Amino acid sequence: MIEFWESSFIEKQLMWGAEPADSAIQAKDFFIANNARDILLPGFGYGRNARIFLDNGIKVTGIEISKTAIDLAQAQGADNMTVYHGSVTDMPFDNKLYDGIFCFALIHLLNNRERKKFIRDCYDQLKPGGYMIFVTISKKAPMYGKGRKLSKERFEARKGVQLFFYDADSIQREFGKYGLVEFPEMEEPNNGASLSFIAIKCKKE
Question: What is the DSSP letter of 142?
Answer without folding.
Answer: T
